[in-house]
């Protein structure tokens, strides 16, 4: 009798699981194109579509003193040092952007330059950023300014940075100062770059400053970032309601490593919720990780999408902590280790669509020192993008990461994402063949 009951229960459980998995497989498909059968030259973009590239201050400017340089020194990491010496070479670098034929450039301003000690403003630094904006506009290039791209002054970090909600007013004040100087000409602003990457890398994995490993702190920082964004949005909109303000959200997709596995599915869903879902719920419903972030509702004029890859998740995904990435048999691994998965760009756009906002692709690119993958990478992603736009997605721009090789955070100078190769001894920039392909595609569209 008991045996039968037990067997019955077991059978019911198996049927239930199989149904659940089948249901999920349908709800969360993982499409893969047969790229040999795709005509990647068949592209179509609206005439006002913007073509761009992106950089960030700490990765290119050089000679900074901030939370990152502090972290690099404390942990004996590769020092960012002179980086691309862009602070002294920006005019030449803007010439490279012109030569590529681009009409949009996303870059970040460096808080530690602008307010090196609390309450002291470096007007010379602000004037340089202002000159950069003028120069870009003269070239017919739209400036897209990011206010926080992973780096900030160490004095603010010492107060707890984004981990302490009480620190937000300093951040808002800095943003207002930059805004006062640039917003007569800069009309597209990104408040915060990749809030989830910043909080997870800095507070869960400890690979970014401040190098903590605490889930509680991670969740707090995630909420505080969204609230700080909302504070800045409100403050800036008061000064100039017509500007467009957004966040650059890294949408990484999480797929079950084994699509038959009842363990991999819930793990993938959980990580996806943690990485993406909680953020969208924050901006959509004002709830994030069971906390109230209602101030963030309605504070986006556009979404910036940073798209790089999908992560395959299984019980061995503890390997995530070591940043090891499995890939499908037919997928190509990028130098970072994660697979090239252009199909995911469409999924990321579909996932953002319920927000009903225009989308700017604020980053997409590949670590590829020998330039063996970048052309294919570009072509696939642009094909997916072109299809998505034709199917009705409101995407306004594409910014390739990056204009040139630069300081790749915890990876130092080992990962080369540039359309231009940089010789860090001589600071010489050389257009890669893939860069020429990008230029050619832009010319045609
Ligand atoms: C993004 C980040 C960029 C760049 C890129 C390449 O997460 O915003 O600064 O480092 O990744 O890995």
* Biggest β-sheet description: 8 strands, parallel, barrel
| pLDDT averaged residue by residue | 95
Give the name of the CATH architecture.
Alpha-Beta Barrel
Overall number of domains = 1
Oligomer: single chain
Tell the overall outline: globular
Explain what this protein looks like in three dimensions:
With 445 residues, the protein is α/β, with parallel strands linked by helices. The protein has a single domain, classed as TIM Barrel (Alpha-Beta Barrel), CATH 3.20.20.80. Helix content is 42%, strand content 15%. It is built from 14 helices and 14 strands. The strands form four sheets. Strands 1-2-3-4-5-9-11-12 form an eight-stranded parallel β-barrel, surrounded by five helices. Strands 6-10 form a two-stranded parallel ribbon. A hairpin with a 4-residue loop joins strand 13 and strand 14. Helix 8 runs parallel beside helix 10. The longest helix is centred in the N-terminal third of the chain and has 26 residues. The N and C termini lie far apart (73 Å). Beta-D-galactopyranose (GAL) binds next to loops. Beta-D-galactopyranose binds next to loops.
Short summary:
The protein is of the alpha/beta class and 445 residues long.
Architecture blueprint of SSEs:
Layout: H1 2-27, E1 50-54, H2 57-60, H3 67-74, H4 86-100, E2 104-108, H5 111-114, H6 123-138, E3 142-148, H7 154-158, H8 168-182, E4 188-193, H9 195-203, H10 215-239, E5 244-250, E6 253-256, H11 264-285, E7 287-288, E8 291-292, E9 302-306, E10 310-313, H12 343-352, E11 359-363, H13 374-390, E12 395-401, E13 420-423, E14 428-431, H14 433-444
Parallel strand pairs: 1-2, 1-12, 2-3, 3-4, 4-5, 5-9, 6-10, 9-11, 11-12
Antiparallel strand pairs: 7-8, 13-14
Helix pairs in contact: 8-10, 9-10, 12-13
Bound molecules: beta-D-galactopyranose.
């Amino acid at each position: 009798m008991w045996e039968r009951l037990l067997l019955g229960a077991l059978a019911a459980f198996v049927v239930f699981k199989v149904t659940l998995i089948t249901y999920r497989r349908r709800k969360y498909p993982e499409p893969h194109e047969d790229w040999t059968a795709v005509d990647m030259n068949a592209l179509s973009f609206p005439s006002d579509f913007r073509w761009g590239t992106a950089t960030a201050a700490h990765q290119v400017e050089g000679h900074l003193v901030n939370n990152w340089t502090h972290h690099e020194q404390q942990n004996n990491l590769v020092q960012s040092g002179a980086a691309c010496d862009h602070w002294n070479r920006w005019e030449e670098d803007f010439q490279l952007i012109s030569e590529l034929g681009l009409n949009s450039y996303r870059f970040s301003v460096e808080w530690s330059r602008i307010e090196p000690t609390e309450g002291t403003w470096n007007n010379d630094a602000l004037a340089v950023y202002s000159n950069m904006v003028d120069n870009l506009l003269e070239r017919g290039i739209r400036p897209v300014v990011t206010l926080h791209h992973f780096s900030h002054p160490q004095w603010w970090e010492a107060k707890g940075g984004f981990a302490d909600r009480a620190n937000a007013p300093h951040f808002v004040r800095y943003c207002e100062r930059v805004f006062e100087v640039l917003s007569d000409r800069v009309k597209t602003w990104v408040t915060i770059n990749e809030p989830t990457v910043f909080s997870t890398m800095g507070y869960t994995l400890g690979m970014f400053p401040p190098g903590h490993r605490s889930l509680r702190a991670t969740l707090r920082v995630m909420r505080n970032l969204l609230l700080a964004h909302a504070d800045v949005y409100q403050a800036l909109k008061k000064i100039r309601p017509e500007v467009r303000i957004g966040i650059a959200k890294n949408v990484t997709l999480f797929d079950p490593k084994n699509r038959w596995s009842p363990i991999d599915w819930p793990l993938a869903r959980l990580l996806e919720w943690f990485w993406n879902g909680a953020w969208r719920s924050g901006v959509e419903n004002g709830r994030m990780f069971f906390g109230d972030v209602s101030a963030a509702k309605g504070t986006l004029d556009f979404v910036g999408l940073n798209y790089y890859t999908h992560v395959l998740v299984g019980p061995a995904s503890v390997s995530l902590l070591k940043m090891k990435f499995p890939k499908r048999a037919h997928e190509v691994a990028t130098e970072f280790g994660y697979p090239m998965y252009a199909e995911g760009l469409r999924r990321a756009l579909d996932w953002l669509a319920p927000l009903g906002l225009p989308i700017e692709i604020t980053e997409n690119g590949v670590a590829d020192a020998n330039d063996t993958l970048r052309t294919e990478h570009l072509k696939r992603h642009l094909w997916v993008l072109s299809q998505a736009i034709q199917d009705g997605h409101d995407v306004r721009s594409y910014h390739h990461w990056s204009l040139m090789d630069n300081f790749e955070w915890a990876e130092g100078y080992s990962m080369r994402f540039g359309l231009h190769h940089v010789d860090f001894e001589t600071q010489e920039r050389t257009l890669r063949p893939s860069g020429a392909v990008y230029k050619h595609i832009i010319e045609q569209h």
